[in-house]
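Checklist before submission:
- one chain only
- standard amino acids only
- sequence pasted in full

Submission:
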Amino acid sequence: MSQEKIYVGSGKQVTGTYGTFRSVSLCLSDIPAEHINEYKGKKYIKLNINDKKEADAYGKDVSISVDTWKPTAQATAPAEAVDVLDDIFG
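Returned file contents:
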């Protein structure tokens, strides 16, 4: 099941004195609260920054979207795997 992308910004590749970099703008208002994580009093968000195949009408060739991936709950390790690990690590 795929989730719809949440686009929050764009930009373009720029070549400067020290090499190529990406100059981007983000719209903080477009970031859903459920994707903002807090750790030690600071707020973080995971983003995907992708190079577009072609620039759009405004010359933007970089797109930015929220990384919405969440790990699925995993079952406990099968007994066979535990036995193998016991054999390896004693």
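Reviewer check: The CA atoms of residues 32 and 52 lie 23 Å apart.
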